[in-house]
Amino acid sequence: MVVDIGGGTTEVAIISLSATAYSESLRVAGDELDESILRYLQKKHQVAIGVIAAERLKIESTSSLSTDSRTDGLTVVAKTF
After folding, report:
1. 48, β-bridge pairs
2. Residue 38, CB half-sphere, CA atoms under 13 Å: how many?
3. Which of 51, 40, 49, 56 shows the shortest CA–CA distance to 79?
């Protein structure tokens, strides 16, 4: 499975036996995912984070590439309300 989250659309493709078995373009994009992360943390955990922190969470939690800074969890500075 290959997922490309762009600024305006998200492209999803399933590759099987060196051919594309299925592909689809969705109108849900990275900016909407960032906003969803913001709303989720506000609603479920009563904390407020910025858009930059939400984008960083999205990238770090969904990256398939190994990073040196990756640990078992993610740390975010937030305000409680």
Report:
1. 79
2. 14
3. 49
pLDDT class of 2 with cuts at 50, 70, 90? confident
Beta strands, E only, the chain: 2-5, 10-16, 19-26, 47-48, 79-80
Q: How far apart are CA 70 and CA 22, in angstroms?
A: 31
The Cα 70–Cα 58 span in angstroms is: 13
Residue 19 and residue 32 in contact, taking contact as beta carbons nearer than 8 Å: no
User: If you count DSSP H runs as helices and E runs as strands, how many of each does the chain have, helices first?
Assistant: 2, 5
pTM equals 0.65
Q: Which two tokens stand for residue 16?
A: 């099987």
Query: For the segment 43-81, what is each residue's pLDDT rounded down to a tens digit?
Result: 998 989 988 888 888 888 777 765 555 556 767 777 777
The single-letter DSSP state of residue 72 is: S
